[in-house]
């Protein structure tokens, strides 16, 4: 997973990234050199299309509409260049991130994927760092893939069925306008199942002014084990893209803080491990303690339970050891989280 685009996350919870397009192009070139002819599956820049600069809050008097539009155009160009560079590698598949089903509608995300270079990619990723169920993600992925095929033939994304449609109505539309899907001619997707074992969290009604249901929600668990055996011809893999147990940031849910009122603990900054509810502040714990808590929490609520599914080295596991070693060996000076491997 590559996560280093300029202006990442609107400089909010997961702020970071490189300074400009030139730096990003050079960095992508280093990643490509590191991968070389090794086998690799690349998830490109989670949220970079779902949250483009024109979506970001105003950053002051100089942050005009024109400036935001220029940065948005640069974002599309950055991702297109990255896809072109990485997809040219002989054994690399690139998946451009498409957000998750509770964020953009199909007709909203498809034009962004097109502008972001999905035509040259193997496909797109869904549900990165989110909690949507496997069935919801599979339907969202199918609708996006079908809409991309429709647009590729000259149709308008605004005509495509969205996830809010009834499945019967959406399927009727697909039957009329897309026909029998040919997976060999359509864009595929990969799904992050690292934290969706219990599905989304439903906040207590009326308890919080801003429940932040996406931010370190309680009671979640690991989802399906990483595998390429998904049973869906369009879904190439279940992956644990988000590190299980990793914090989304400090979640105050509309309160004064400093504790997360739902977990009764001070949440660590984004990227660090989250302690279990009621175990004290993140800063007071040692990394080994966090790791143990993370393991107990994720495995206890895993669905399906741990113990089944492919193990490392078995057929169907989406592991790419060549990518791991090659990338870390050749790409230096990366900020934490810029490149992640599994």
Structure characterization notes:
The protein is an alpha/beta fold and 342 residues long. The protein has a single domain (9-330), classed as TIM Barrel (Alpha-Beta Barrel), CATH 3.20.20. Helices cover 30% and strands 7% of the residues. A 5-stranded parallel β-sheet has the order 1-2-3-4-5. Helix 3 links the parallel strand 2 and strand 3. Helix 1 packs parallel to helix 2, helix 1 crosses helix 7 (321-330) and helix 3 crosses helix 4 (134-152). It is globular, with a radius of gyration of 20 Å.
CATH class descriptor name? Alpha Beta
CATH topology: TIM Barrel
Tally of separate domains? 1
CATH superfamily: 1, 4-beta cellobiohydrolase
Approximately how much helix is present in the residues?
25-40%
Structural class: alpha/beta
Distance between the termini: 9 Å
Main sheet makeup: 5 strands, parallel
Strand line-up across the major sheet: 1-2-3-4-5
Based on DSSP secondary structure assignment, what is the total number of beta strands? 5
Number of helical regions: 7
Mean pLDDT: 85
Instruction: Give the CATH architecture.
Output: Alpha-Beta Barrel
**Percentage of β-strand residues:** 5-15%
Order of helices and strands: HEHEHEHHEEHH
User: Unreliable runs, pLDDT <50, ≥5 residues?
Assistant: 280-295, 310-337
